[in-house]
Amino acid sequence: MEDLFQKFKKQFVEEIFGLLETIEADMLKLEKDPADPQLIDSVFRAMHTIKGTSAMYGCIHISDFTHHLENIYQAIRDSGASIEKNMIDITFDSIDHIKRLMDDELLKDASNISRNQALLDKISNLSADQGSEPAANIRENKNSREKKATQSWYILLRADEQIYKRGISLVNIFADLSMLGTYKIHRIASLSNAETEVWGIVLVTSEDINEVKDVFMFIEDYCKFVLIKEGDIQSTEEIERFGEAQIPLAAVSKPLPKIEEVIEKIEKVEKKEKLPEVEKGSQSSVKQRTSLLVAEAAKHNLKRVSVDATKLDYLMYLVSELITLNSKLLQKTKDEYFESIRPEVEQMEGLTKLFRSNALEIRLVPLGDMVIKFQRLVRDLGKQLGKQIELVTHGTDTELDKNTIDLISEPIIHIIRNCVDHGIELPAERIKKGKSETGKISLSARQVGNYININIEDDGAGLALEKIQNKAVAKGIVKPGEKLSKTEICDLIFHPGISTSENITSVSGRGVGMDVVKRKINELRGEILIDTEKDKGTSFLLKIQQSIAIIDTLLFRVQKTYFILPLTDIEICVHIDKSILIANQNTGTIDFNGRMIPFLDLRAFFELGGNYPKTVRTLILKEGNQYIGLLSDEILGEQQAVLKPLGQSFENETGISAVSQHGNGEWAYMLNPHYLHQVLKSQSTQNINNSIA
What we know:
- The chain is flat.
- The protein is built from 24 helices and 21 strands.
- By secondary structure, it is α+β, with helices and mostly antiparallel strands.
C-alpha cells in the first residue's frame, strides 16, 4: 500500500507542477494583454483544479490558499475587468509559494507560515482595494449583479465503491456545487449491485455546462448531464444502464431531504468504506484514500502518458541490442545459401528500423517545454534589477533527447542570467545610446545535421574585450602584449575567475561560472561559440550533438579500421583517381562542382599506415555552405549504428565521438564531422595529407 501511495503521490506532484507551469505561461501573456478573458479563464480553471486536487489529496493548506486566490480571479472573470500589475506580482509570488508548500504540506516551516499569511493578507487587501466582497462571498456578490439567464440541469450520479476507494470526497464536490447556484439531491435507487447507488441532482444555475462539469471533473465518467426544458416529460426506464438514463421528473417532484442530511449520509458511507491504515502515525485515512485519485487527472490529457525515464532508458537498451543482433544477422545471411529466407530477413530489418524510430521519438522533448522557465527567469531578474527585458523565442519546437534537455537547461539558464545582469543596460542608459528602453534577449533553435544549434543573443552592451584580456593577463593566462583575435578573447571568459564585473551581484557575473557552462557543453559532445560587438550585443551559439544512441550512418573502411559518419552530414560519395590526389597533395584540395575544397587523408591523420587503391572512394561532407572530402579505401554502405561512449583510452581523441559494433563483430568509430571541418580550416593540409603514394 505504501508503494502505491508513493506512486500516486508522484503523479500528484507532476500534475500540480504542470498546472503551475500553465498558470505561469498564462500570466506572462497577461502582462502584455491584461484584459484577455480567455487567459483569465485559463488561470482560473487551473487554480480551480489545483484547489480540488489538493483537497482530495489531503493537502489542505494548498487547497485553502489556492481557494482564496481563485476567488479573486472568479471576481475578475465575472466583472470582465483587467488584471492589474500588483495582482500579477501576487500571482507569481503565489506560484512560488505553492511550490514550497508541496514540500511542506502540513505548513510546519516558519518561513512558509509567515509567507502564507503575508500573501493571504495581500490577497485580502486586493479584494478591499477593488471594492469587492470578501473572498467567501464572491459567488453571492455575483448573484447581486445583473443576473444572467438561469438554467436547470439534472445530473445523474452513479456512486459505486470505486469512487470511495479512489479517495474522492463527495462532500467537497457538493460544497463546490453549492457555489454555482441552488441544488437539491435525492436518492433514486440502488442497482442490482448492492454497493452501487444512483443519485439525482437538480441544479439551478446561471453558469454554463463547462462550469458545472468542472465540479465533477474527477468523476465525470460517473455522471450524465441533461438540460431540463419546460414541459419536458421524461421516462425513468433503463436507469440501471445509467449512460442511457433519462430524467425521472416524477422523482423530482417528491419531497427532497435537506442538503445537510445528504452530506451527513455521504460522510457515513465514506467512513464505512475507509481504506486500512498505511502504518501507525501516518496521515489520516481520508488522505491515504484521496491519494489514489491523481490518476483521474490524466483523463484531461489522454494523449500523453508520463513514463519513468529509467523505463525509457531500458527500452533504448533493448532496441540497441535488437539492432546489433539484426546487423549480425544481415552479415551472416549474405551467402546465396540463405536466399530462401531473404524476404523475412529484409522484413525484420524494416521492422527494426520502425521500432528504432518510434522508440527514439518517445524520448524526444521539444525545447519549448523549458521556455516558460526561461521567460519567468527573465521577468523576475529584470524586475529585480530595474530593467525592461523581452524574451523572444524561435524554433522552440526543435526536439532533443530527454537526457540532453535535462543537461542543457542549466547552461542556458546561466547564460540568460548573464545576459540580463551584464548584457542588457538600464532603460536610461539604453535611451542615451539611442536604443529602445526595453532590451531584447532572443532564444532560437534549429537542427543542422546531427547537431542542434541553440542561439542565445542579447542587444546589450557587448563584452568588454579589453577588460577581459587585461584580467587574463593579471591572472597569468595570457602573456602581456600578446595579440589575440576577438574570438580568442571571447573564449577567455571560459577560464575560472575571469569576470569584468566591477560589482558583485546576487544574480550573476559574466565569466563567473562560464567554465562550468563550457564543461557541461563538452560533456554533451558539443561546443559553444561567442560573438560580440560593442553596444550591439553578444551571442552564444551552443552546438549540441544529439545524444540519441542510434542513428543512420554510412560505414566505410580505411586500411583495417572501420569508420562511420551520420548520413545527414554526407553530401555525396565520389571516386577520385589516385594520381589526381597526388598532384594536388601540396594544396590539399580537390575539385567539387567547380570549386576547390580541402580533403583529409585519414590514413595520415590517424596514423593507420598502408596505401590507397588506384581509385580512392571519397566522402564529401557538408557543414553549412562549406565542403570537405575524406579519403577511404572502401565504402560498405548504410548501417544503423548503436553508439556507445568512448573509453578512457580515447578521451583525448577529439576526432572520434563514439564507437559502434559492426555486424561482423569489429568496432566502427564515429568521426566528429565538425572537428574535421575545423582541422582543415585551421591547419595546413600539406602537413596532414602526407601519405598518399
